[in-house]
Amino acid sequence: MTVVTDSLAQLPIFVTFLVIACFWVLIALILLWIGDRFVSADTREVSGNGVRNMLTVAAAFYGFMIGFVVSQEWSNVNDARSQVSQEAAALSNAGFAALTLPYPNSVKLGDALLSFGRSEACEEIPKLRVSTEPSLKTTTALAKLYETASKVSPTSVSSLPGYGSMYGAIGNATSARRQVINAASERAPPVLLIAIVLAGFVLLTAVSLQDVRHGRAHVITVIAVSLFVALGQTLVVTLSRPFAGAATVSASPLRDGIPAEFQRCKNPATLTDPHQLDPSRLG
């Protein structure tokens, strides 16, 4: 089930809805054919009250399940966005603290921070749209950042307040990154997805078995309900991946406040002077 939802989440929203809608319209047509072939008009009339009761229960349960899952998935998306913002804030704090250190440590650490943030924005977050695994390039950039921080010279630099603040902020960014990666693997449990599909099937079956007074109107009603079922499941699928689908988590917080030449994914500039990061250059 997860494989199916992940595959559909990669498609444009309209295409996802079209695929799911085609499936449920096909199911609706099959149910209509079975009903016309095996359920007589007398049987429909006699069982009318029972069918209406089943329809009420199925519709309520389906609506509840869709609302519950969509609410949880939207919460996961917002949590992922919050973690990206926290990572960006931690990297910003680390950058400002690093630039208070004496040259050349300030430049080396500043460039290592830029490399890690750029790798996160250009490599890892885009990769999380199709995968739940961290980017090896970003992990390597983070390891290089810690290595650069461990090799400050002279060693007395490590006793400066700015160094402690920077190292702590790097740790916060690392923790936030771990949460961002975890958010990419969060999914609604398969049992809930199966329950939603079954509830949709029961709802559609109940509608197709209603007492028929006007054949064409009945067909239109059943198809309309199938589209309603498809719409609810499209919402579930498109929100199932925080970094893909309807509510994509953006990497823009990691780029805010950084001059354009250091943001480029290809051929970025190398930091050689702390003044290159002067905020006044952004205006």
Radius of gyration of CA atoms, rounded to a whole number: 27 Å
The 3D shape can be described as: rod-shaped
**Distance linking N and C termini:** 49 Å
Biggest beta sheet summary: none
N-to-C SSE series? HHHHHHHHHH
**Secondary structure: helix percent:** over 70%
Number of helices: 10
Strand residue percentage: under 5%
Whole-number mean pLDDT: 89
Unreliable stretches? none
Total count of domains: 1
Number of strands: 0
Alpha-beta content class:
mainly alpha
Structure at a glance:
This protein has 283 residues and is mostly helical. It is 71% helix and 0% strand.
Tell me what you see in this structure.
The chain is an all-alpha fold and 283 residues long. The protein has one domain (2-189, 199-221, 237-275). The protein is 71% helix and 0% strand. It is built from ten helices and no strands. The chain has helices at residues 2-9, 13-38, 41-46, 48-98, 105-127, 136-150, 161-185, 190-208, 215-238, 260-263. Helix 4 packs antiparallel against helix 5, helix 4 packs antiparallel against helix 7 and helix 4 (48-98) packs parallel to helix 9 (215-238). The longest helix is centred in the first third of the chain and has 51 residues, at 48-98. 37% of the residues are buried.
